[in-house]
Amino acid sequence: MKYLPKVSHLQALKQVARSGSIRAAARELGQSQPALSRTLRELEQTLGTQLLLRSKEGITLTEAGCAFSQRAEWVLEELRRAADEVEQINHATHGRLTIGFSSLIALTVFPAVADAFKQALPQVALTLKEGQLSSLLPGVRNGEIDLAIGSVDPMRPPEGVMIEPLFTAPFCIVARRGHPLANESDLMALRRAKWLLPESPMGYYQQLQNELTPFYRQLAIAPLRTDSVITGLNMVLESDYLTIVARAMSQPLQLEGKIVTLPVSTLPAAQYCAVWSQKSALTANAQQFLTRLREACQAYSW
After folding, report:
1. Which domains does the chain have, with CATH numbers?
2. Signal sequence: where (predicted)?
3. Distance between CA 220 and CA 193 in Å, rounded?
4. pLDDT confidence of residue 254
């Protein structure tokens, strides 16, 4: 290849892949359709291969187009980060930072960490994304999320990322106060209860799935599954379901008088980690945030 693609080529392909049509992509980019089509042809000529398949239904990527699009998104995110770091050097408190975390972080240490970070760097544009680590990882890998915090199964760590352990959180089974099984200490005695279980293909809940498979197989009623904490706790309070949560969640939700912890001691603890892309060094802003996060996690009573 004599010449490398231009940034405008990468931006054009990224938007077309997301929009699914030349017309919609041109509108998003503020360009005319002929101009965008010309940019895409230039990119295909530069690479010497077809990247797009055009049909009445819209645009789809070829195999080569899919492979190049993924790399192009990462390159664009790296360029954005590089520009942000230069801005941070020139203007000490500027830049952007995108953080992803699970509900446990949101309900415990995050408010204090965010306040400390914004006091030190008030002009940094901080964007927050809440979700299980499994849903955040694609954004971490392609550079859209600078830093994520979530539970990691130490036996099956995710690929393509750097991992720093932060803390270990005990989990427990909870029920509404007054539930007929509220004092039950034998896990197997709970197999006829109604269960709502977190849904996640990795991390702590996958670890639970693996370790408690014999118990799950004996449940009399197929469990409900959701990744929504609010839905889960409402089903516990209103419909006599049991669920599994981190012990540290009951206090910030002000549920100590409404839910009780069952005296079951067979659940493993969860390891929570900071996670970032293996391809990219942490930006200065991400390092500042991680320093404050470490301190808060070490001081918190999990």
Report:
1. 5-77 (1.10.10.10), 84-164+269-297 (3.40.190.10), 169-268 (3.40.190.10)
2. none
3. 7
4. 66
Cα 103 to chain center, whole Å?
Answer: 11
Cα–Cα distances in Å, from 15 out to 34, 72, 229, 232?
Answer: 15, 11, 34, 37
State the average pLDDT over residues 234-247: 91
pLDDT class for 2, splitting at 50, 70, 90?
low
User: What's the mean pLDDT in 142-149?
Assistant: 91
Kindly report which listed range (45-59, 175-189, 194-208, 255-269) carries the lowest average pLDDT score. Answer: 194-208
- Tens digits of per-residue pLDDT, 79-104? 887 777 776 666 555 678 999 998 89
Q: State the angle between helix axes of 7-19 and 22-29 in degrees (0 to 180), rounded to the nearest 10.
A: 120
| Token pair recorded at residue 219 | 């449940």
What's the predicted TM-score (pTM) here? 0.69
DSSP per residue over the chain, as a string? Answer: --SPPPHHHHHHHHHHHHHSSHHHHHHHHT--HHHHHHHHHHHHHHHTS--EEEETTEEEE-HHHHHHHHHHHHHHHHHHHHHHHHHHHHSTT--EEEEEE-HHHHHTTHHHHHHHHHHH-TTSEEEEEES-HHHHHHHHHTTS-SEEEEE--TTSPPSSEEEEEEEEE-EEEEEETT-TTTT---GGGGTTS-BEEE--SSHHHHHHHHHTHHHHHT-SSPPEEES-HHHHHHHHHHH--BEEEEGGGTTTTT-TTTEEE-----PPPEEEEEEEETTSPPPHHHHHHHHHHHHHHHHS--
Rounded CA separation 22/32 (Å): 9
β-bridge pairing 224-226 and 147-151:
unpaired
- Per-residue confidence at 111, pLDDT binned at 50, 70, 90? very high
- Cα separation, 220 vs 247, whole angstroms: 26
